[in-house]
Amino acid sequence: MFEPDVAGTYKGFISKTDYLKSLGVTHVQLMPVQNFYTVNETDREYRSGTATASNYNWGYDPHNYFTPEGWFSTNARNPYVRVKEFREMIQNLHTRNIGVIMDVVYNHAYIAETFENIAPGCYHRFDENYALSGKTGAGPGLESRHVMVRKLIIESLKHFVKEYHVDGFRFDLMGFIDHETMVAIRDEVGKAYNPANPDELILQGEAWLFSDLSLDVKAAPANAATTKIYNPGLKLNAGIFNDASRDSYTGRGFEKGFVQGVFKEYDRVVSSITGGLKSYDAGQKVFNSEIFNDSYNRFAETPANCLNYLSIHDGFTLWDKLNLSVKDPSKVERARLMRLASAMLFTSQGKIILHGGDEILRTKPLSANDKERNRAHTTPFTDEEEGVMYFHENTYCSNDYTNMFRWDRLTNEYYEFSSHMLDYYKGLIQMRRQLPCLRYHKTENVIKGLEFLCSERPNGALPLYKGFNDEKLNALEINFINGPKYERYYLAGEVYPVNTSPNDENNELYLVDFDGEGKGTIKFEKAQIQKFDLTKWGEPATLNIKLIKTPGQWDALPKAYTGMGNNAIRIGGIDSKGNVVIDLSVTDFEAGTVPRMYDSYMAYHLDNTLEKDLPKGFTGTTYTELIIVHNASEDTVGVMAAYITDPAGWVVICDSYNAGIKPLKYSALPTTKRGETNVLIEPGKVTVPRKSTAVIAKMK
Q1: pLDDT digits (tens, 9 = 90+) for 380-438
Q2: For residue 627, is it within any domain?
Q3: Of 101, 165, 346, 426, which is least packed with CB atoms within 10 Å of its CB?
């Protein structure tokens, strides 16, 4: 552990930049470093797991947009020190060819007085009742459409580009910033970074379907929220966090995903592997479904618009997520699943982002006196770590014990797992940087060079309606079966209009009365259907609902749902009379999903000759093609691959234990040795062990 005057500072960060270089990352994304409100800058004392109070915050409580945070300096009382040390940290990273992206917060202030005392009514956004908008849930909203707010945003960003030489910005809750402001940022701040190519400045952000601006995809740019499904596109050229990758690969929250055996996520996994591209042609492939084609899953104009990830700061670490969803006291299986999930991420198109510390099995255990204890969770699968059974998913004000990197995992009882994971991540990073086909820049090359090795979809009838706004859909009758007898429940979810809560006792309540056979019905007329807000819970082509016992509470119908689950009504599930059936005996029942046996593995072929882009210092390989298989089943699978005509011309470069670009030696006996593999290449076939990845490459 560092001395107190260095730990957690810009100077302390410098001591780990050689580690970052050895890891192989291209950029670091710093959580907010603009001056924020809720910490004592001069108090740098370490808070243990039993500390009675916390002096820690992520920094999403902005105070001064032009000033680096003093809490991260070695002397907060001297204003020059923070400037000098922040510059030195960035320079140190740049000398190691690592770019710097700042996380910035322009959607809200921490307190209204910051701006209201200067110019009342000028900087903040007001709601329909002329009250300060608190829609973000984090503080009074800023009005990006006002000239002075736009000026503040652009000038403060330019300040950090010109004075500190940062390389990009990540926008917290970007959906609260209008299109015109975001385009102005690209133009003006981009030119400050590189007058010849403004697009070189990295812009990325959270573009959730959540805002007090218009979520209507036809809204004028001046009033439109910058969201995943409606943004300025190529004019902005921003990376958008793709939660579909996180949720489908390993599960949302503490739920399970494809890696843990939820194979119905197949179509959503495919959408993320293709980089969320709108234009990817699925043809007659089996995954060409409503889920795959949902605009929330396919949103990107170019690969650069998609930012795939498995975990991030405001969620569980990847190690904790798997601990909450897989029972494995030995940790062997959990580590295996983590490598499988990570290999899936690194072989997905678009950009990717890693949660710092995942590579050494970072964990966020609950401390004894945490203010947000309700944000820590445990499940029947959870195994104890450090004497703790609860793990945190939102540690914005948790203390050092919860938020810190546990570097001692590389030397203590976790050594076997953490050191292997670190090496595996280094190999995955090397593989991705050396093989351009894993990160195509051009949209047309993803379409041309990425082919899935899977079955064709069966011929079936097309949905009767184009969507919930189809003029032919005059009414919607939801028929619940296998429900509770003689009980009343209420609907929560997307049946409520825009800018309303999905579950509020003050809403117009929609009730379902069940009869003696456990059947219940509710009917919506066209006028009500047209007011549905299909963006509340994502996937805007789907109506998501949930039965709850008490309005305003989340006391959902037992056994009908997983913790964060719900019923989904896809347009294909509605018949000619507007009727749809929800079977409550099936957990998280989805109406309209075409019944099929989902593959338990993902397989695809990539052409490595279409692009030649290599980072500085990388020589590339002689490999011309790749075949990638992610086997999430409990059994060994054999995948048919007609591309393999001569097995001698193909080599394995990545499996469940090894990652990189060097060929691995085949072993017929089960092996976990470095440099050996159980992946077998045969004419027209590749065989992959359970819960494992295989990347095989064709030599020139």
Answers
A1: 999 999 999 999 999 999 999 999 999 999 999 999 999 999 999 999 999 999 999 99
A2: yes
A3: 165
Could you tell me the strand order of the sheet in which 520-525 lies? 520-525, 475-481, 579-583
Contact 306, 276 (CB under 8 A): yes
3-class SS of residue 300: strand
Q: Provide DSSP, 89-118.
A: HHHHHHHTT-EEEEEE--SB-S-THHHHTT
Cβ count within 10 A of residue 114: 17
* 685-688 and 680-682 strand pairing: antiparallel
What is the Cα–Cα distance from 188 to 267, expressed in whole angstroms? Answer: 39
Chain centre distance of CA 151: 30
Do 586 and 438 belong together in one domain? no
Query: pLDDT tens for residues 269-312?
Result: 999 999 999 999 998 898 988 899 999 999 999 999 999 999 99
Q: Which of 252, 452, 202, 246 is nearest to 341 (CA)?
A: 246
Written as six digits, the tokens of 540 are 């805007």
Longest dimension (CA), the chain: 75
DSSP element (H, E) containing 20: helix 17-23
555-609, pLDDT tens digit by residue? 999 999 998 899 999 998 999 999 999 999 999 999 987 677 899 999 999 999 9
Classify 535 as helix, strand or coil.
coil
Specify the pTM.
0.90
Q: Which domain holds residue 222?
A: 10-443
C-alpha to C-alpha distance for 261 and 294, rounded to whole angstroms: 22
Please state at what angle helix 147-164 crosses helix 79-95, rounded to 10 degrees.
60
Q: What is the CATH number of the domain that holds 558?
A: 2.60.40
d(CA 685, CA 700): 19
Domain-embedded: residue 88: yes
pLDDT digits (tens, 9 = 90+) for 442-470: 999 999 999 999 988 766 556 788 889 89
Q: Which of 443, 465, 494 is a domain's end point? A: 443
Q: Please indicate, yes or no, if residue 469 is contained in any of the structural domains.
A: no
Q: What angle do CA 291, 297, 301 make, to 5 degrees?
A: 135
* Per-residue tokens: 665: 């030696």
Using the CB atoms, write b or e for 382-404: b if 16+ within 10 Å.
beebeebebbbbbbbbbbbbbbb
